[in-house]
Amino acid sequence: MKINFSAAISLALVLPLSSIGQESSKARVPAASMPAAPGKISLITLDPGHFHAALVQKSMYPVIDPEVHVYAPGGPELQAHLALVRQYNERADQPTHWKETVYEGPDYLQKMISERKGNVVVMAGNNHQKTEYIDRAVQAGFNVLSDKPMAIDAAGFRLLAKAFDKAAAKQVLLYDIMTERSEITNILQKELVHLPAVFGVLRPGSASDPSVVMESVHFYYKNVSGKTLTRPDWFFDPAQQGEALADVGTHLLDLVQWICFPSSAIDYKKDIRVLSSGTWPTPLGLSQFSAITGKSAFPDFLRPFLKADTVLAAHGNGEVTYRLRDVFAHVTARWEYKAPEGSGDTHHAIFKGTKATLEIRQGADEKYQPTLYILPVAPSSGYSAAVARSVKQLATKYPGVTISAVSGGWRVEIPASYKVGHEAHFAQVMQRYLGFLAAGHIPDWEIKGMLAKYYTSTKALEMARPR
């Protein structure tokens, strides 16, 4: 039966910040893979073990059926997921109206495949099995929207590459959730990198002086949707959650590709060379572990990572220096216990151009809010005029964006209306994915970009030296 997805196309354009640079691809979604109800997309949530699975449902979407089928083995992670969705349904301000239909049992994966209650499978949870879940779902003809990471080691990457081949053959769409592309400071940094009057071009750089430097700091103890998050104990097992580089590091690797080479298909076999990488632990005491997980003792599977039975050497940090085509980049992903009061996860990004450095800072001086700076290499009145003209032109696309003078350059002033917050970015990613479903394809550069970043992260881990 032929399905009309014009409504999905309109929805995908509601937030233009999340739909930059879409291109054509040969991967098409056949009518047979679409739901029976005209114009409706039906979600399946598979084994939710991470709060990102619920954040996908923090908003409603006109083209998505409110009934979501959940398949899971049961346990506290499933209950936490259902509680968070219920919280969204019961909130006073713009409540959602999801209906969660749950199958709970050890054969949840087989049951999902045999019952075929939906056409888009959402995955966010234990990463040990995620790549296998992706492969099985794609093989069965489901579209997949997966939280990062899609793969946490070299073997997982090889399976993922095969899953993308299967997705093309089955004509289904496999995509990951890259929320940081919807953060306005990242978007404007990308825009400015490609304004020669402001940025020039990327400096040549080297392994010791990379052209691009990025670092993110995440925190184990945090609040989500106004409540303290309880993480599962397996979150600290690198075999189940993955190392920092393979997990949150994928956001940074994605941004490097997306900003430096927008809408360009990267061939991981030719365009990427990992030069060096390393990992190091974040120490957590039992009291801190208990505050994060609600568990009173370390589980046996974490004993290999315990120091004197009282301190967990969590696999919380990693860095990689690599060459992406002619660009040298250095990426660091770190985890700490708890953020300073009034702050949260932070992002620091530097792009070094021949005319200016574009830097995002998120420290105490910025009141822990991501802030973009233009720092000229050789200040002059002519350059200042060129920056003013360029930013004025940029404001025709992003109304209200201006600059103000600061020591060493300018700060980009961004209206509060663009600063929707991390949790809202999940709806923006979903809208981007709905646009792909409506068009019947994912751009080829997106598919190759996913392969490129997971190759980089897993290759970096393969080469990493502990310290």
What portion of residues belong to β-strands? 15-25%
**Class computed from helices, strands and strand pairing:** alpha/beta
Radius of gyration: 22 Å
The number of strands is 19
CATH topology of the domain at 6-178: Rossmann fold
- Which homologous superfamily in CATH is the superfamily of the domain at 6-178? NAD(P)-binding Rossmann-like Domain
Low-confidence stretches: 1-38
Per CATH, the class of the domain at 6-178 reads Alpha Beta
User: What's the tally of helices?
Assistant: 14
* Estimated helix fraction: 25-40%
Shape: globular
Distance between the termini: 58 Å
How confident is the prediction overall: mean pLDDT?
Answer: 91
Q: How would you briefly describe this protein structure?
A:
The protein has helices at residues 6-12, 52-55, 76-90, 108-115, 130-139, 154-170, 184-193, 196-199, 249-260, 268-271, 286-293, 381-394, 422-439, 444-463; strands at residues 43-46, 67-72, 99-104, 120-123, 143-147, 174-177, 212-221, 223-224, 227-228, 272-285, 306-307, 311-324, 327-338, 346-352, 356-361, 371-376, 402-406, 409-413, 465-466. By secondary structure, it is α/β, with parallel strands linked by helices. It has a domain at 6-178: 3-Layer(aba) Sandwich (Rossmann fold), CATH 3.40.50.
